[in-house]
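Why should sequence recovery work at all? Because a backbone constrains its sequence more than one might expect. Tight turns favour small or flexible residues, buried strands favour hydrophobic ones, and helices have their own preferences. The token representation captures these environments compactly. In the example below, the structure is given first.
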């Protein structure tokens, strides 16, 4: 029987995961992404008035960096992240539903779902003004794994190489790259990132089943071949919202909220 995984090892894995979330969240926040796509598609020759109209319209939209973003409450920003992250990560995580009950016997959905929920929680922490890696580790450990990790253990020694050595020991492979390779965060890029970071979380696979899940009827539907994907998709969206609610409570209890 394997030894119980310690808080120290959980914290080392989560520190590596939290570090990987930084570049992905930065990609999601890029305020000039849509403008760049327009400029590139026309060879950089965009009519000045058209580009200004595009900027004006984007400025009215609610997304990180837009003019209206600063006027949103932390709760409203969280809702944006749930939808932005959710419609991509939930779909990627629910693909295992195509295999019906067979897919449920594998840790794939918990692996991918945990990675998606962890990404959302890191985004929420940022909106609450929490940039400290140790606090983010405690947040993820509490919401995903029901563990109350000591702040000193969560912070560690600020040694990325040591954390990666722990991951390598647990998984027999090096941690995946933190920077997403694809230029834009579409379904393919989301699935690739989730797969790589989910494999990292497999280092603590015994903990993954503790994460927030969907309703019982989502799980029942998810056991059916083919249509199980729909059940798993809506189940992952429900689970993501549960993770957000629990994370919001944790952040209010343990960190100073900033708008």
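From this structural description, the recovered sequence reads:
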């Amino acid at each position: 029987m394997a030894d119980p995984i310690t808080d120290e090892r959980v914290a080392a894995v989560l520190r590596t995961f939290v570090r990987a979330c930084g570049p992905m969240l930065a990609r999601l926040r890029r305020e000039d992404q849509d403008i760049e796509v327009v400029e590139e598609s026309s060879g950089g020759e965009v009519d000045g008035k058209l580009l200004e109209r595009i900027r004006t319209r984007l400025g009215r939209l609610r997304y990180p960096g837009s003019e209206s973003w600063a006027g949103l409450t932390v709760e409203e920003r969280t809702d944006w992240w749930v939808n932005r992250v959710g419609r991509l990560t939930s779909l990627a995580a629910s693909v295992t539903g195509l295999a019906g009950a067979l897919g449920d016997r594998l840790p794939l959905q918990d692996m991918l779902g945990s990675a998606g929920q962890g990404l959302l929680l890191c985004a929420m922490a940022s909106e609450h003004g929490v940039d400290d890696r140790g606090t983010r580790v405690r947040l993820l450990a509490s919401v995903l794994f029901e563990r109350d990790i000591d702040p000193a253990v969560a912070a560690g020694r600020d040694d990325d190489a040591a954390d990666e050595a722990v991951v390598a020991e647990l998984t027999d492979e090096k941690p995946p790259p933190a920077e997403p390779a694809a230029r834009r965060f579409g379904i393919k890029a989301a699935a690739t990132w989730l797969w790589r970071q989910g494999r990292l979380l497999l280092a603590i696979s015994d903990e993954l089943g503790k994460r927030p899940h969907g309703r019982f009827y989502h799980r029942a539907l998810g056991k059916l071949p083919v249509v199980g994907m729909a059940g798993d998709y809506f189940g992952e969206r429900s689970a993501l919202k549960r993770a957000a609610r629990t994370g919001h409570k944790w952040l209010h209890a343990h960190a100073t909220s900033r708008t």
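A few observations help interpret the result. Residues 31-45, 97-103 have pLDDT under 50 and may be disordered.
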